[in-house]
Amino acid sequence: MLTKIAGGDIIDPVNGRLGQGDLWIRDDKIVGAPAGGAADRTIDAAGCIVMAGAIDIHSHIGGGNVNTARLLLPEQHAAHQARPAATPLSNAGWSTFQTGCLYAKMGFTTVVEPAMSPGAALHTHLELADIPIIDKATLAILGNDDFLLSMIRDDAPSTMIEDYVAWTVASTRALGVKVINAGAAAAFKENVRTFSLDDVVPSYGVSSRKIVKTLQAAVDSLGVPHPLHVHCNNLGSPGSADTAASTIAAAEGLPLHLAHLQFYGYGTEGKRKFSSAAARLAELVNTTPEVTIDIGQVMFGQTVTISSDVMRQFSARGSASPKKSVIHDGDGNGGGIVPYSYGKDFYGTMQWAIGLELFLLIDDPWRVFFTTDHPNGAPFTAYPALFALLMSREARNEMIAGLSKSAMALSTLAAIEREYTFEEIAIMTRAAPAKLLGLTDRGHLGAGAIADIAIYRRNGNIAKMLGQAAYVFKDGDLVVQDGEITHYRWGKALRLNPSPDKAMVRRLEDYHQQRYGLSLDWFNFPDSAIAREQPFGEVACRT
Amino acid sequence: MAVAWIGNRETLVERAAAHAAALLGSSRCPVFSLDTDIHGTRAAIALAERVGAAYDHADGAALSRETALFTDKGAMTVAPGETRRRADVVVIVGELPQVHHEFVGELAGTVPDLSAKNQREFFLVGPNGASAPPLNNGRAATLLSCGEASLGATLAALRAQYRGRQTSQPVSNFDDFAKALEVARFPVFLFSGDATDGLALEMLQGLIADLNRTSRASGLHLPASKNGWGSALASTWMTGFPLRTGFARGFPDFDPWRYDVARMIAAGEADLHLRISSSIVQPQKKRHRMALIALAKTQKPIAGAAVTIAIGEAGVDHEAVFYSSRTGSLRSVDARAASELPSAATVIRLVASHVSAEAALPC
């Protein structure tokens, strides 16, 4: 089927295409204008912006901890209306089905679940397989697991560590590797309550820094396109900017991605010993080209924090609102679920302002990524409002007027004039994520790319414009029209597939038999277990 | 071999499925009881949405107590693998389902390799005369009891004594327990909703929270039913809610009292019962004005059922995905003795295909 998207304002930074024109789709791919070709279908995009489908690199959309959060908070996500006939379960509050629909309506077509416990890979992929329309991907968590920590302690050769990382990525069908408060979950099991970059995990004698550097090197050496994705130590603590700065410095020339930097943008100045260190961190990011970051923007209102940083979540239990939480010591990281409401008080305002300062003070939109760390800073449904804040100083000033004056007095936000352009938005939410994840087939509108396309009708109300796409195509299927889902389909989970080393598989079999009394078969699964046609799409490692 | 019946008459599966769909379509209050694997659950929930049914586990009471701990209170829990490798004190809370006894025996037969203590002590919380699952090598768990007091009361007394408070009746062997805790690095409490009520589960979590003020401890959830907990997980990601959810209003509505399927049947609210369990062999008590559709591993029609369709046993006749209490997550298993019997999911989808709808099933 040949589709012509006619007369839209095309924003495709990768291919240098900015301006009015046509875009052609043949079946599931973008193609050049066919010579004399007559379209089977024409979409009138006059007055619309045409961009590639958006990519979210860090959003907790599925897996054991997310599901536990759903279980913990049934009162928070009741459905409000009967389902639309064409989209079963899509109005089930906070269901997998709703997740895919809500993302698609905003023009997002690929979302990465950034924290998959390797032992719960099957569970995670089953949830992702029930998220309709969009493609998904996962990052496998390493860095608190006994097998890795033991190898580092025992000075195992780097090739052996790479074999283990490769096996983990392959067997869990992951797209990359994440380390979460490296070593802290293991230390917490031994009753350690705080843990910094140079602290040492008891019983292993291995520092958090050593774990991060080991994994960073392994990921790079294996050619995993996405750099090691790091959730630093001391998340949320006053003074955590020092930790983030030390971690940025530890990149040492190799690629490193720091997740939700806003949660580390905290200094210790002022009478409350809580201040913005955003300018300092932004400057560090600006001058450290091997580092990329995502923000984890806070927006006001009720949410739930979901993290495999079990030590941090344990310490946050007292602030749970409502007053209930789940803390789980897992085989590696485990996790914690703590509901939380961001108020417009001093602290909430400061967190909100720090996130925006980082967005606006980091110069290069190719290295700063648009996230709320869903749902930790805010649900992803807050994205349209966040786009408006980034693209309009006036919108920021209107918001600031209703916030804590004492917090804003310590922030530079009100003085920042920058407003993101649509081109920068297209880079930050399309082109750069595709590059960061190694997804060459998306994030742009060049011939050969998959036809993941978001079309927005121009509107002075940015939130409305970017919150309800006029049209969304996924793999060439028209899935959204006028902000409503028109077609259910099933995306894939994008994965790497490095060949596992046979000696490592034998070693892991022995390890699981000896330590857990279980064969490795208990943790492996065939693709058929997902019960969907072609549940996975393979992405190549760098050669 | 016959695999489907309408009443007592053999028929084709397709016809039985169409008849089941007609019954579902005309029902004013259909209810589903599930005892199936993850994919059977997913298919059943998709059908429940289509016909406006409520669904529950076949033995919903115990599962409901377990889900209520999470929906109402929260918890501190630990993975079974970490329990094996780290628990130097194991406290068995009340009676555990038989299916978990093997794991308890395994804990008794191994030492925690990630603990400096390198040995385990066992305690059992329960009334006088309570017995723990068999431990290896003639070992016995030390009983912590308050005479005939309930499990909740005993846990309350244990918690009070641990905090140095007065109790009306002391817990037996408390000094041994206190001594063990003094040197323990990671005590783990094994619990289930099978024979433990909600208050006891909450009190246990209070005790675990108290222990974590200064040291580490956690609880290992050993579900009353692996199929039940697996279904609860699948239901939660599909609808936002665990079992005892209904679609009577066109969207998922979680109400653990209202959608207690056993209660709905007993109260005469339900007029159609779809029971999905490979292990059904005995007929349900015949209910006046309530039709039964049975999906079961059977070679003959279920007595009193309007429709019976034979299904295979997940993990035996066909591959399956289960909750594994041994790993604390979902596990894929191959067919042990593959047969041509269809899976519950396959039959449910066939039934659903005969229910008129504007959209394809989501799973």
From TrEMBL, chain A:
Signal peptide range in chain numbering: none
Statement: the UniProt record of this protein carries the keyword NADP: no
Pfam families: Amidohydro_3
Keywords, alphabetical: Hydrolase, Transferase
UniProt-listed SUPFAM superfamilies: Composite domain of metallo-dependent hydrolases, Metallo-dependent hydrolases
Domain of life: Bacteria
The Amidohydrolase domain, residue ranges: 41-463
Keyword Hydrolase among UniProt keywords: yes
InterPro entries (alphabetical): Amidohydro_3 (IPR013108), Formylmethanofuran_DH_asu (IPR012027), Metal-dep_hydrolase_composite (IPR011059), Metal_Hydrolase (IPR032466), Metallo-dep_Hydrolases_sf (IPR050378)
GO molecular function term, any single one: hydrolase activity, acting on carbon-nitrogen (but not peptide) bonds
This protein's name: Formylmethanofuran dehydrogenase subunit A /formyltransferase/hydrolase complex subunit A
Taxonomic lineage of the native organism: Bacteria, Pseudomonadati, Pseudomonadota, Alphaproteobacteria, Hyphomicrobiales
TrEMBL record, chain B:
Superkingdom in the source lineage: Bacteria
Protein name, as recorded: Formylmethanofuran dehydrogenase subunit B
